[in-house]
Write a structure and sequence with these properties.
Blueprint lengths: L5 H28 L7 H21 L7 H31 L2 H18 L3 H7 L4 H20 L4 H16 L1 H12 L6 H37 L1 H7 L5 E3 L2 E4 L4 H9 L5 H21 L1 H19 L15
Antiparallel strand pairs: 1-2
Helix pairs in contact: 1-2, 1-3, 1-9, 3-4, 3-8, 3-9, 3-12, 3-13, 4-7, 6-7, 6-8, 6-12, 6-13, 8-9, 9-10, 9-12, 11-12
Length: 325
């Protein structure tokens, strides 16, 4: 059941496990113990060592099977999916609430959630009546997701936000369930293992890549705008510690407490207005950067669509009596 996952599939999962130990667990332990060891290079090497051991365990269990390249591509794509869907969900209410008002941001979040809930009952109708394959549906969703995020980045009114977020919500509605369905269709021999690993990859990516990545982007774009327009104000409002994300250069955003005070002030000082405006610019640029993820996913799904076309089209596979597909 693990042979189709193999070394390639396990590599994706083990990378995220190592990242969890290094960043999340290390941060928690550093907070409670006050020790700098859990943020040191030694701790990082230990965490990646654990990930490597887990990878070797999968290798031994599968007789070092390389695994399916297609399943590896699906795992990587699902990591991107988790980052853009669940990771963005954690930020979209705050971002739209910052650009518009907090109350409107909450209404928009409920609206998109209700729209997605309703549409997910229509997947069977779309596949059977519109004759759209799961890969074709994922391609359409990726395009809509990218377009929707770009539209949201330019919202000015509540009505405009409703339209933009509707496009984005329609785009991300079928991502997660359809990806799991593709794995179930094409890799029946793995049973629930591959689908479980894929779900875990998506959830871990949302917490380890999606949320932190958007936070880093917001800090970076906000700081860059304020440095360019009012460097003295930036020095007054900058955060005490820099932000880091994966291999990207660290950046120092704005102090959260000072930023919140500037945004909620009834009568803003000129400096507070500059800070609030910079935050909105950062939000808009963050959403534009986020749109790059579903755009990359669209390219992947297009290539997969062409691949399936060369082998006779997308078809669910079955297991015969001898245990072969």
């Amino acid at each position: 059941m693990l042979k189709d996952v193999g070394i390639l599939g396990a590599l994706v999962a083990c990378f995220l496990v190592g990242l969890f130990f290094k960043d999340q667990l290390g941060g928690i332990l550093a907070f409670f113990t006050g020790s700098t060891f859990f943020t040191s290079a030694t701790w990082s090497y230990m965490c990646w060592g654990v990930a490597f051991v887990l990878l070797m365990m999968v290798g031994v269990k599968t007789n070092f099977s390389i695994g399916s390249v297609l399943l590896f591509v699906l795992f990587v794509t699902h990591a991107l999916l988790g980052a853009v869907e669940l990771g963005t969900d954690g930020w979209i209410q705050n971002i739209t609430g910052n650009i518009l008002t907090p109350a409107q941001g909450k209404i928009l979040f409920v609206f998109t959630s209700l729209l997605m809930f309703s549409l997910r009952f229509c997947a069977d109708f779309i596949e059977k009546n519109l004759k759209i394959s799961p890969i074709g549906l994922l391609l359409i969703c990726s395009v809509l997701g990218a377009v929707g995020l770009l539209m949201v980045s330019g919202i000015e009114t509540f009505a405009g936000a409703m339209v933009a977020l509707a496009v984005y919500a329609i785009g991300k509605t079928f991502f997660w369930p359809t990806m799991l369905a593709v794995v179930g269709d094409r890799f029946p021999r793995t049973g629930a293992i591959a689908m479980s690993i894929m779900g875990g990859i998506g959830m871990m990516s949302a917490g380890l890549i999606g949320g932190p990545g958007l936070g880093y982007a917001k800090d970076r774009f906000t700081a860059e705008h304020l440095i360019a327009t009012a460097p003295a104000v930036y020095e007054q409002y900058k955060a005490p510690a820099p932000s880091r994300f994966l291999f990207l250069a660290e950046t120092t955003g704005l102090d959260g407490t000072k930023l919140s005070a500037a945004q909620t002030a009834t009568t803003k000082t000129p400096e507070q207005q500059m800070v609030a405006d910079a935050s909105i610019v950062g939000d808009r640029k963050t959403l534009k950067a986020d749109a790059f993820i579903p755009a990359v996913m669209a390219v992947v799904y297009l290539l997969l669509l062409l691949y399936f076309k060369t082998i006779g089209g997308y078809k669910p596979l079955t297991i015969d009596a001898a245990g072969e597909r």
